[in-house]
Amino acid sequence: MFYSLRQRLLITFIVLLIIPFTAMVLVLTQMSNKEIGNSIEESTSQTMDQYASFVNTLTNQVEDVANQVLSNDVTQQWIGGQMNPSLPENRKVLLDAELRKFLSSIALNHSYISSITLFDSNGVAVGISDQTFRDASYMKSEWYTAFKQEERRWTSAHLDKYQPSSLQHEQVNSLLFNLVHLSSFQNIGILKVNVLSEDILKPLQKIKFGETGRVYLLDAKGMPVLNQTLPPEMSGFSSVWPAIQADKHSGGKIIVTPYKKRHLVLYRKLLGSDWVVIGEVPESELFQKMTRVQQTMLAVAGGLLLLTIAAAYWLSKSIANPLSLLVQSMKLAERGELAAAERQIVERMPRKRTEVGYATRVFHAMVTRLRFLIETEFHANMRRKDAEYKALLMQINPHFLYNTLEAIGSLSAQGRTDDVVDVTESLGQMLRFSLRTDNDLVQLKEELRYIRHYVSILRIRFGNRLDIAISAETELGNESIVKFIFQPLVENAVKFSLENASTALVRVGVRGEGKDLLIQISDNGPGMPQEMIQEIYAQMTQGEMSDVLGASGRRIGLRNVLARCHLYYGERLKVSIRSSPEHGTEITLQIPRSEGEVNVQRIVR
User: Fold this and answer.
1) Claim to verify: residue 546 and residue 419 sit in the same structural domain
2) Does the residue 308 lie in any domain?
3) Are residues 417 and 271 in the same domain?
4) Is residue 72 domain-resident?
């Protein structure tokens, strides 16, 4: 059918492609974009500035290392030994070893340092390698000659046989210092600090300057400092090298004309050495490539704007409007408002047998099915969590009740009527509280009242063997928390503390911290093994706390509390367990504050 979505889009796209292509053919012959070239020039200039800053920082750091080496006592002692011809040979060997150890530590602590070597005028060389060289051939090397005759402190890339064997095949650039005895100011040789040339070359190679442009690092004579070649067609800067050297500014740009072609030359002088960063590129490359892209995009954008307006007006009634409504319904579904999305589809979407109508019907069926599945899964999940919570609540070990009844019998037999009355009254209050199963939440003051009744029973049972204190900020009394948090933890604390010491020392504290409540319980028990603590953390992270339903053994009261809190508070529950052998355990529960009425529906319902 001619008016199908596919055909209408096909016609529209043909129009949108042919006209822009024709427009590009017409405008490409007239394009000129100097701004793009300037942008490339500025970008390259900034990159060169960054590289110059990097090299300046590196050279300054190397100079700091050289000063540190020269001024160190180990170096000065070695220099003094070289100046003393009567020094025993074994003493010199010891000084060499100490110097190697010191230089190795310096190189190890400065990752940009490849190696450090000290040369004396008699041909002795000591560095970070495992041997002492006695070879005066270094005095014939180019870097030594340049330093002595021209005072060139920074060398070009070269190989250094005095480096460790693993680095002897690597090119290095070096900083040279006179090896001076600071007490007598006598110069006995040269201090040489090496930096791998590759560490300086890699950042330089990342600088892009047009298609064929090149960037070099040159010395004061215009020769490459690194292992770079200077092709004749990209060496136009050599004709203006004296002017670059004479320029007192730190950088600039010059136009040169090698081979009758205009080249742009950018340069930056480095502060810590006599090196210069030079970039050269044919000027035509800066105003040729990107120019077309910008002009074309402007022309195409204008044409496409007009065409889009016309096509959108034609398509809006049959395609754009229905699609817009469909998108609105999808946004409602994305926000979870499935009922609103389903209602909008039923009320506002077209029923025509077109592609849009088909997509609408499929989306409506999908939303309906998805809503049904989500509601089914939600209710099933709520029932499951409610069952888990109830099972955990019923699992709290009631043996304290049996112990209390036995204590009442024992007190009666002893004729301690007042204690029998006190225990019976406290037990009655606890049972009245525990039989309230209509809510999962209770006010903090009620939970504390419950635990105080429990503690009063424990005090009668254990007498002076129990030292327990409960503290809570009074303004937190109306906060709502999950019930039965304290009793299992206090029971565990008393039980294990009495197993470990003659007196159980238990502390219970509740305080507010921002939007959270912090519940802390500490004891002087034998402590918890780190394996058990890590296991509890892992179970909480993996959502396996409900496995406590089938568990048994020690610390089940703690797992029960954590499992119930995790079911209720979810990821908002934070737990910290600090324990060490024979020094007791401190458990901290961090739960969100929820001040207000306690007759709140369970979170799992």
Assistant:
1) yes
2) no
3) no
4) no
Is 411 buried (19+), middle (13-18) or exposed (0-12) by CB count in 10 A? buried
Lowest mean pLDDT among 158-172, 188-202, 362-376, 499-513: 362-376
Other CB atoms within 10 A of residue 385 CB: 17
CA atoms within 13 A on the CB side of 301: 6
- Going by C-beta distance under 8 Å and a sequence separation of 6 or more, which residues neighbour residue 73? none
Count Cα neighbours of 322 within 13 Å in the Cβ-side half-sphere: 20
What's the chain's average pLDDT? 79
Close Cβ partners of 245 (under 8 Å, ≥ 6 residues apart): 220
The predicted pLDDT at position 506 comes to: 93
Cα distance between residue 603 and residue 568, in whole Å: 6
587 beta partners: 521, 577
User: How many domains does the chain fold into?
Assistant: 2
How many Cβ atoms are within 10 Å of 204's Cβ, its own excluded?
A: 19
Partnered with residue 472 across adjacent β-strands are 510
What number is the average pLDDT over the span 576-589? Answer: 90
Residue 259's CATH number: 3.30.450.20
Whichever domain contains 498, its CATH number is: 3.30.565.10
Question: Is 410 among the domain residues?
Answer: yes
Residue 171 is classified by DSSP as -
Is residue 190 within 8 A of residue 176, CB to CB? The reply is yes
Q: Are strands 466-472 and 504-513 parallel, antiparallel or unpaired?
A: parallel
The model's pTM is 0.46
pLDDT band, residue 258 (cuts 50/70/90): confident
- Ramachandran angles phi, psi of 583, nearest 5°: -120, 10
Residues spanned by the domain of 495: 396-592
Percent of the chain with pLDDT over 90: 18
Q: Is residue 447 part of a domain?
A: yes
Q: Which of 267, 289, 311 is a domain's end point?
A: 289
Tell me which of 258, 289, 320 is where a domain ends. Answer: 289
